[in-house]
Design a protein that fits this description.
Blueprint: E1 10-11, E2 25-29, E3 44-47, E4 53-55, E5 58-59, H1 61-71, H2 79-91, E6 104-108, H3 114-121, E7 125-130, H4 133-143, E8 146-149, H5 152-158, E9 163-169, H6 178-187, E10 189-200, H7 205-210, E11 223-224, H8 227-236, E12 239-247, H9 264-286, H10 288-301, E13 315-322
Parallel strand pairs: 6-7, 6-9, 7-8, 9-10
Antiparallel strand pairs: 1-5, 2-3, 3-4, 4-11, 10-13, 12-13
Length: 324
């Protein structure tokens, strides 16, 4: 006897809008996200007042976590390639800070610790917060950096610490409750401390060109900002924005190379690719000290990225200070 599996229950969110308090929004995009194994349709709405784009109705937190477990590509990247990417990420984020000295830095969403290791090599005193236990354990084991496993909220409950800089890259778009999250980031900073954010830019020129095919539209990105909505969100959370600009993110997400909807064949091919990548990764992990030294040298000698002040690129970078 066959059993019919009921589709996951989805709930409306962001009413009222966490940025501006408005209760009016309209459907903006309906990307095809079947290749990720997403159940049903993925609908993105746009706030009628501030322009914030958000997924609603949205999967429950448990269903979202399951989606990450089955499909998320981020932790499968090869070590040497990831260090190359991290050098570029450093030059367009932390390297843009007006202060030249290296102080204390908290990275929230620190993944496998590549950025933490690079920053430590540049003289920073670093700490990470990472939800995924496997990734956090990798960072501790391979790089010897301090990483707390869990949410930012849990970290703040057990650690009463303040930092000169808090870094959140490729993270804000994933957070189910960004209003509370931004307030939590503020509490991790010393007065006058700097918050550095890197997040997809729904105001990008490529959104106009590609529409729902834009690479920033995937089911892991549940809140998307343009310059206006990001500045308003930060101001509302007690920050003053010092720098905001954009850059074009031209990389290709590994899992996105599988075209069409998810099938057993496609998943089998993806599994073989991951296995081959894991074998290469084990070899590269043994060479990580060498790769890391080279990455630190490139970062030290590199030129900070000049951001587009018109914010037409695919990703926004924002540096904000905690208001006293």
């Amino acid at each position: 006897m066959s059993h019919v599996v009921a589709p996951p229950v989805k709930q409306e969110v962001n009413r009222p809008c966490f940025v501006c308090g408005a209760d009016r929004s309209a459907e903006a995009f309906r990307p095809d996200v079947g290749k990720w194994g997403y159940p049903g349709e993925f609908v993105l709405r746009r706030c009628a007042v501030c322009g914030l784009v958000f997924n609603s109705p949205r999967l429950s937190p448990m269903a979202l976590a399951d989606l990450y477990g089955r499909n998320y590509y981020f932790f499968d990247r090869r070590p040497a390639a990831e260090l190359d990417r991290i050098v570029g990420a450093y030059l367009r984020t932390v390297a843009l800070l007006p202060e030249r000295r290296a102080g204390t830095l908290l990275e929230v969403g620190s993944a496998k610790g590549y950025m933490l290791a690079l920053l430590r090599g540049l003289g920073w005193r670093v700490t990470g917060v990472e939800l995924a236990e496997e990734a956090a354990a990798f960072a501790r084991r391979v790089f010897g950096v301090e990483v707390f496993t869990g949410t930012l909220e849990l970290f703040r409950q057990v650690e009463d610490r303040r930092f000169d800089v808090v870094l959140a890259q490729d993270l804000l778009e994933h957070v189910p409750d960004p209003g509370a999250f931004l307030l939590g980031l503020r509490e991790c900073l010393d007065p006058g401390g700097r918050l550095v954010i890197d997040t997809p830019n729904v105001g990008a020129r490529n959104v106009e060109i590609l529409g729902p095919r834009w690479r920033g539209f995937n089911p892991f990105h549940i809140y998307l900002y343009d310059r206006v909505s990001l500045e308003r969100a930060l101001t509302g959370a007690g920050f003053s924005v010092h720098t905001i600009g954009s850059y074009n993110n031209v990389g290709v997400e590994e899992s996105a190379t599988l075209s069409g909807r998810s099938t057993d064949r496609a998943r089998a091919v993806a599994g073989l690719r991951r296995a081959a990548g894991a074998a290469r990764g084990r070899v590269e992990t043994a060479l990580l000290p060498l790769h890391l030294r080279r990455a630190v040298d490139r970062a030290r000698k590199g030129t900070p990225v000049q951001l587009d002040p018109d914010c037409a690129g695919d990703n926004l970078v924002c540096i904000a200070a905690r208001s006293s």
